[in-house]
Amino acid sequence: MKVILTENIKSLGNKGDIKDVSDGYAINFLIPQGKVVLASPENIASWQAEKNRDVAKVEARQDEYHKIIHTLNKQSLFFVAKVSEKNTLFKGISISDIIAEVKNKFNLDISDHWFVKASLLKELGRHSVFLRLPNNHLISFFVNIGPAK
User: Fold this and answer.
1) Nearest to 149 by CA among 77, 83, 76, 78
2) Of the candidates 92, 89, 86, 104, which has an alpha carbon nearest to the alpha carbon of residue 148?
3) What gap in Å lies between CA 55 and CA 50, rounded to an integer?
């Protein structure tokens, strides 16, 4: 009996593979547990369409990551903040502040999970910020903090 695997099965194959298995194995074990579906022309077409959608999603995400890399790498963001007599900020610049400024200035959506060694920026000056994207690219940009007048 020809079946399409709906999940990875160590002894049989990977999700989406079409395999030939014994009728008893398919009817008594694989189909009741939802591990396979019959390899009918309709199911094959459905799986192929789902596979094409998954590939398109991955390509769209990769394009988004490349846009972030090319737009944000080595750029600078500027913040103005109130400072004390010791030149420390009353309110630090947080990751959410940086994300909002990136969205505002470059129209890019970045995640707080991508920040490497994220911490609250509490001093005036230039700070390097690093992002590790899900595609494993490491980029850096700068956050410049100046005193409010």
Assistant:
1) 83
2) 89
3) 9
pLDDT tens digits, residue range 101-133?
999 999 999 999 999 988 899 999 999 999 999
Task: Estimate the crossing angle of helix 95-106 against helix 41-72, to 10 degrees.
Answer: 90
Give residue-wise pLDDT tens across range 73-82: 999 999 999 9
Number of domains in the chain: 2
Is residue 1 a contact partner of residue 22, using CB atoms and an 8 Å limit?
A: yes
The reported pTM is 0.68
Furthest CA-CA distance within the chain: 81
140 and 118 co-located in one domain: yes
Indicate if the pLDDT at residue 88 is higher than 90: no
Cβ–Cβ contacts within 10 Å for residue 124, how many? 16
Torsion of CA 6, 10, 12, 16, to 10 degrees: 30
Look at the block and give the residue holding tokens 């008594």: 28
Q: Within this chain, do residues 43 and 108 fall inside the same structural domain, yes or no?
A: no
* Residue 117: Cβ within 10 Å count: 6
Same domain, 71 and 47: no
Whole domain around residue 49: which residue ranges?
2-60
